[in-house]
Amino acid sequence: MAADKTSVNITYLDSKGKKGTKAITDINPNADNGSLKNFCSGLNALTNNTLTGVEKIERTDITSATAKPKLALTLSTIANSLKYTSSNEDGRLFNEVNLPAFTYKLATSKLLGNPLYLSVVIDFFPYADNIQFAIKGDTTLTEAEYGQIIATIFFEETATTAATTAQITIHATDMPELTIL
Amino acid sequence: MADKVKSTKQLKLVAGFEDGDDRTISLDNPKTDITAEEINALEAGATAAIIGDKADAAFTGWKDARIVESEVVYLDLTTD
């Protein structure tokens, strides 16, 4: 089965005001949109063309009867400066932050009956190590095309310099999490 | 009528991969004063974005960057 393909189209106006399009094929399908946009803007900056847009195109091979449609989930990255509820226990600093409820929209409604799972990546600024966190609340998505995610992230800070801001990115996967017996 | 000459320029960036292969990105209408620093500054973004047909061979950097000039002469076929 052919691999799924992702490409980007860079649209621009040339020096004479004429529209043009440059296609960059076989882009990393896991690259985030911001990185792709910045990369394409950087490429265009090497030219005398005026950038007018960057468009990502994803193609899914569904030739095989067992092929799953590729999931494209549109979720917002939770913004910085989340407010923590901190507590001290045995000299250890624990923080609890409630994610604001946000809606999601699935790019495909064909989930083939499988639930979806979320994983959370937290980037702290300034960098703080030894961060352990767990997610409380409902983090599984339903088969509905629209829904809401409400969750609480519970984490411990052990770095000597406490982080002041956090950026949380939520990833969706259609693979079930492993259960350690 | 005289022959018509059309000149074009393209910037060709050659991306290298871990398996020794490469692929070329061609950009029309390049600037004339492109610096090595400007091109090398795109490596971080290229690492995240470029995969080619190579899911298992990572982008290693720009192997080559060149501006190719071509000239096309449209011959005048009119007869006096």
Question: How does this structure look, described?
Answer:
The complex is a heterodimer of chains A (181) and B (80). Chain A has 181 residues and is mostly beta strands. Chain A has one helix and eleven strands; from the N terminus they run ββαβββββββββ. Chain A has one helix spanning 33-44, and strands at 5-13, 19-24, 50-59, 73-74, 85-89, 92-98, 102-106, 117-125, 132-138, 146-157, 165-173. In chain A, a hairpin with a 2-residue loop joins β5 and β6 (92-98). The longest helix of chain A has 12 residues, at 33-44. Chain A is elongated. Mean pLDDT of chain A is 64; it is low at 67-81, 107-114, 141-145, 159-164 and 175-181. With 80 residues, chain B is an alpha+beta fold. Chain B is 15% helix and 46% strand. A three-stranded antiparallel beta sheet of chain B has the order 2-1-3. Chain B is elongated and about 60 Å long. Chain A binds chain B through residues 3, 8, 14-15, 20, 22, 24, 26-29, 31-32, 35-36, 38-40, 42-49, and chain B through 11, 13, 23, 25, 27-31, 34, 38-39, 41-42, 45-46, 48-53, 55.
